[in-house]
Amino acid sequence: MEYLRAFLVGGAICAVGQLLIDFTKLTPARILVLFVTLGVALTGLGLYEPLVKFAGAGATVPLTGFGYTMAKGTLEAIKEKGLVGIFSGGVAASAAGIAAAVFFGYVAALFSKSGDKS
């Protein structure tokens, strides 16, 4: 049941992104920013945490989950470090994910052939 909930919630989030691409003039970059910002806002309002508890990876893997991780890390860092936590919390909480993205992007670049697409 856990896998089904994760699949349905994650799929719904991705379907919303696809609908935004298909039916609006928003660029993929703006949709990315919208989803991350939405994850931060919903976490700040206390609405995203119940979704994470319900769907697990279905809610934390999409881009809204990145916003959730940054907001949660910032809130925890503010409790521990005060005002400095505003600047360090989000980066510290998402550092592993960012490092993995950089590493795997580098590895993919080593094995792919770059070239002009025209």
TrEMBL record:
The gene is spoVAE. The chain crosses the membrane at residues 6-24, 31-48, 83-111. This is Stage V sporulation protein AE. Keywords: Membrane, Transmembrane, Transmembrane helix. InterPro entries: Spore_V_AE, SpoVA. It holds the Pfam family SpoVAC_SpoVAEB. The keyword Protein transport does not apply. PANTHER family: STAGE V SPORULATION PROTEIN AC-RELATED, STAGE V SPORULATION PROTEIN AEB.
